[in-house]
Amino acid sequence: MIISQVSNQVATFVNVLDGIASLVTKVSKGYAVTLIDTDAEQIVGTKIYPPAMFDQAVAYAKKLANT
Length: 67
Known about the structure:
By secondary structure, the protein is of the alpha+beta class. The protein has one helix spanning 54-64, and strands spanning 9-15, 20-27, 30-37, 42-49. It has a 4-stranded antiparallel sheet, covered by helices on one side. A hairpin with a 4-residue loop joins strand 1 (9-15) and strand 2 (20-27).
């Protein structure tokens, strides 16, 4: 699976060994952290953080990808 950069995507963490990726995207309510199974090419889950919690959103995405 190729993960391309889109205009509202602010961070991407890929774990090739585990076949997962986590993305942080800017959404109307703040930041969405999405975990993707890159082998199955399916979204596993999404968590929304308010705008003031950008650093926490990025840290959570990094933790999800085990990077």
